[in-house]
């Protein structure tokens, strides 16, 4: 289903989302407590070359790994966002495989990662850390620090991308936890996003979030954390307080392949 085929309104467990049709580079939201449909789209086809926009319009930063954008890395685009920014910043990611770890700090809310409107596997963010790996000081990373993408900011949203941890792990082997996405801000939304991994793929750590038409792949504890999130798949809505094994058992009992 393409972006144009989705429209909804939702207000539940403190997660406030408003999705509707509309323009994408108009005036910034008057009320930033809402995520609107336009926060998931970006019509610009050329790089902005500056983060500053006129008339208080939404900012767009283009990422192109081949050098045709404002940044050739996603982390570079995140770094361009002002600290404590007060308006939506759309990071439009052109097709390609981006081999990097990405960190969105709590000090940078209202960021959108926007990939392909047709195929979420056209834009891939991938890395390969696992819990038993050592950092530069010789300490084990542990599960939390393995994430390919970590989002600590509020009102983050992503659409049309794949986030992967490429570690190949046999289920249950110690030290092989390898997180693809660690989300621990609040009020984030993911639409048509693929999360790929083996063990501990999605760390839905805290906050209230909404996952719509997402594909989540893994083996053991592939969705875990303490968040209160909504997972909507093919019209069925699951409102889940995530408690590792409990959530996986509940999903399997419902016959849903996540």
Automatic annotation (TrEMBL):
Q: Name one Pfam family in it.
A: Pectinesterase
Domain (Pectinesterase catalytic) spans 61-233
EC number annotated for this UniProt entry? 3.1.1.11
The kind of enzyme this is, by top-level EC class, is hydrolase
**Superkingdom of this entry's organism?**
Eukaryota
Give the signal peptide as a residue range, or say none if absent: 1-26
Matching PANTHER family, A to Z?
ACYL-COA THIOESTER HYDROLASE YBHC-RELATED, PECTINESTERASE QRT1
Q: Which family does it belong to?
A: Belongs to the pectinesterase family.
This chain belongs to which protein, by name? Pectinesterase
């Amino acid at each position: 289903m393409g972006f144009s085929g989705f429209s909804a309104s939702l207000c539940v467990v403190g997660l406030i989302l408003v999705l509707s049709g509309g323009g994408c580079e108009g005036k910034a939201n008057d009320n930033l407590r809402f995520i609107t449909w336009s926060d998931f789209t970006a019509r610009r086809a050329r790089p902005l070359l500056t983060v500053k926009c006129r008339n208080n319009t939404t900012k767009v930063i283009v990422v192109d790994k081949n050098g045709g954008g404002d940044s050739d890395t996603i982390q570079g685009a995140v770094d361009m966002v002002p600290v404590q920014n007060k308006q939506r910043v759309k990071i439009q990611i052109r097709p390609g495989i981006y081999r990097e770890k990405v960190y969105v700090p709590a000090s940078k809310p209202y960021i959108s990662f926007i990939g392909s409107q047709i195929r979420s596997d056209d834009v891939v963010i991938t890395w390969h850390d696992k819990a038993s790996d050592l950092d530069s000081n010789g300490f084990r990373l542990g599960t939390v620090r393995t994430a390919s993408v970590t989002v600590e900011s509020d009102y983050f949203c992503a659409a049309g991308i794949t986030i992967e941890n490429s570690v190949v792990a046999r289920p249950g082997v110690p030290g092989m936890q390898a997180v693809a996405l660690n989300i621990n801000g609040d009020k984030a939304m993911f639409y048509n996003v693929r999360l790929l991994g083996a063990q501990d793929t999605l760390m839905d750590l805290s906050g209230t979030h909404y996952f719509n038409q997402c594909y989540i792949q893994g083996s053991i504890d592939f969705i875990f954390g303490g968040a209160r999130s909504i997972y909507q798949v093919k019209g069925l809505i699951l409102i889940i307080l995530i408690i590792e094994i409990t959530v996986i058992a509940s999903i399997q009992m419902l016959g849903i392949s996540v």
